[in-house]
Hints:
Blueprint: H1 9-13, H2 23-31, E1 35-36, E2 40-42, H3 44-47, H4 53-68, E3 71-75, H5 81-95, H6 99-104, E4 115-117, E5 132-137, H7 155-185, H8 191-196, E6 203-209, E7 218-223, E8 229-234, E9 241-245, E10 248-252, E11 259-263, H9 265-270, E12 280-283, E13 290-297, E14 304-305, E15 323-324, H10 325-339
Parallel strand pairs: 1-10, 2-3
Antiparallel strand pairs: 3-11, 4-5, 5-6, 6-13, 7-12, 8-11, 8-13, 9-10, 9-12, 14-15
The structure holds 2-oxoglutaric acid (AKG) and fe (ii) ion.
Amino acid sequence: MDDESNPPLMDTYKHLFGSNPHSLLEAAARADDDECDLPVIDLAVLEQGVDGAAAELCRAEIVRAASEWGFFQVINHGVPQALLDSLHDEQVRVFRRPFQRKVGQPLLDFSPESYRWGSPNATSVEQLSWSEAYHIPMTPPSTAKHDDQDPTVDEDDNHTRYVIEEVSTAMSQLAQQLASILIRGLHGDDDEIMMSCTRSTCFLRLNRYPPCRGGGPFGLCPHTDSDFLTILRPQDGVGGLQLLKAARWLTVKPSLGALVVNIGDLLQAWSNDVYKSVEHRVVAHAARERFSVAFFLCPSYDTVIRPRRRPEGNQIDSVYRSFTFGEYRSQIREDVRLTGRKIGLPRFHRHAPSPAATRELQPRAYETS
Ligand SMILES: O=C(O)CCC(=O)C(=O)O
Ligand SMILES: [Fe+2]
């Protein structure tokens, strides 16, 4: 990657690096010793559409992994490997463009804000994400430009758009299928929630983590995802994704061809903490750049997240109060504005004091998604 392409991360955030810029990475590198093997779930039996004991077992495994880990890997997931490889090629190509072009000229017909780099609100190196990303809304296919006759649309762009659409569609189907299994797994009704997640409410994020010579910041700060669930394609072979389990950061061992699934805040709220939205982060690599793709299953802003009632015992009270997704997002924005951090679900505990009285609530993670 030549320098013209890289965002000016060091020049912009030099002031955040104190006298010991390497301390963070050293701490993160220690977590490298604790690699974890995430559960790997083979979805072939579901893909075949055969319902029986094997499919039942597979669904139970998904429910168990979401409860015990909040993170798991899936193989035979139905997203074609060739398509994922094509997206990787497209991703490399668009991130190779000069930085000035990435800032000044939107990718395809997405809004200029879809390109992001660094962490504009960071006041310390711990809040800095050493990365750049495209946040890509899933547009209805009818509004996308495919016009072969339009001279402003070049062939490369059409191919990029085609690949993004195909991957989004395939990942969206997978995300819906998994969310539906998880909701039904707790005897919930998946109709309302599934109907609220449409093409225009979900999005895809293309991440690039430049190497950070000498180490220092995170590629992506610790955070939880604010959606129902996320499908992640981490770059095989580079690694760097870590998750928090029992107060320890564990490095996810990259597994060839697998997709990583993680539970977001909304499923944790709906399930009253049965499913875990786990904090995760990416450690910047000292020598190698890394790419990843994340698909976020999000509902429309007016969707009400109504935590399911717990059937066990006499306890019918839910952990969280009902809230709309719009309310959730605006509370996060407000907390980030006031404290620099996302507080997230603790704000929505049924008995949580009002936001004005909870300034002391421990920030849980940075807002990234
Ligand atoms: O790049 C990764 O492996 C993680 C990305 C992630 O957590 C996110 O985009 O929310
Ligand atoms: Fe994430």
